[in-house]
Amino acid sequence: MNQTNRILKIQDMLNEKGELSTKEIMKVLQVSQDTARRDIVKLVDMGLAIRTHGGVLSLAYQKKLIPNYSERNLINPVLKNKLAEETLKYIHQNETCFIATSTIFNLLCKKLDQSLRVYTHSLDNMNYLSTKPYIEAHLLGGRFFPKNRFFYGVDTLKRCERIRFDTAIVGCASITKEGAFLEDEEDALIVEAAIHNSQRIILVAENTKFNGSSVFKICDLHDVDVFITNKKSGKNSHTHWFPDEDIVVEI
C-alpha cells in the first residue's frame, strides 16, 4: 500500500475513533514504526490532524475534547478560585495589565481591589471590571466569538499591538516543552501580541493542561516570568520544563 492510500485509511480510522496511537497504525496497516511516523508527519503537514505524544488526533475530535467557556465554568470551581486568589498576589498597584480570556481570570477580575488600568478582549472580564470605579477598564472590542466569549479581529489586534503593558496575565489550553498553546487562532493572535508588548508575563493553568494538543502557540516557556498552577503528585509533574523552576508557584 502506498502512502496516499495509507493516509486515506488513517483518515477513515480517525473519523471513526478520533485518536490513534502509532502502534495501532502499525498493526492495522502492517507497517514499521518509522513508516507509521512518516505517515503521521504527512497528515499533520497537510493540516489534517494533530500530532500527540505517541500518536495522532483528528482536528474534529480535538475540538470536542476542549469544552466551551460555559462548560469550563462548571469545572473545578474551588481550584479555579484558589488560582485566581494566588494570581491576585502578583498584580501591582497602578499597573497597566492585559488580562486574557479564562474562567479563572473571570474570577480574578471579580476579586481585583486596587487601582489599575486593565485591557481585555473578554466580555465576561469586562462585565466585572466595569463595576469597579478604581479600575480604568478598556475592552479590546471587535467581532464576537460566542463559544469562548471574546472579541477578535484586525482592529482588535492592531490596538493590542500599540499598547505597552506592565503585565500580561494569560492562560492556555495546553503546555508542552515547546511552549504554551491556545485552542483558537483568533484568541492566540491577540494574546501573543499582548505578551510581546509586556514587561512581565504571568501564565496561569491547571496541571491538566500539560501535554495537551492545542496548536496555536502564544509563547515559549522561557518567556514566562511567573507560572501559577496546582501541585501534581508523583513523577508526572512537568514544571521542570521551565528553564527556571523558581518562577513556578504551585498551590
From TrEMBL:
The keyword NAD does not apply. GO terms for molecular function: DNA binding; DNA-binding transcription factor activity. Residues 3-58 form the HTH deoR-type domain. PROSITE patterns: HTH_DEOR_1, HTH_DEOR_2. The keyword Transcription regulation applies. It holds the Pfam family HTH_DeoR. InterPro entries: Carb_Metab_HTH_regulators, DeoR-like_C, DeoR_HTH, NagB/RpiA_transferase-like, Tscrpt_reg_HTH_DeoR_CS, WH-like_DNA-bd_sf, WH_DNA-bd_sf. Keywords: DNA-binding, Transcription, Transcription regulation. This is DeoR/GlpR transcriptional regulator. It comes from Vagococcus humatus. The lineage of its organism: Bacteria, Bacillati, Bacillota, Bacilli, Lactobacillales.
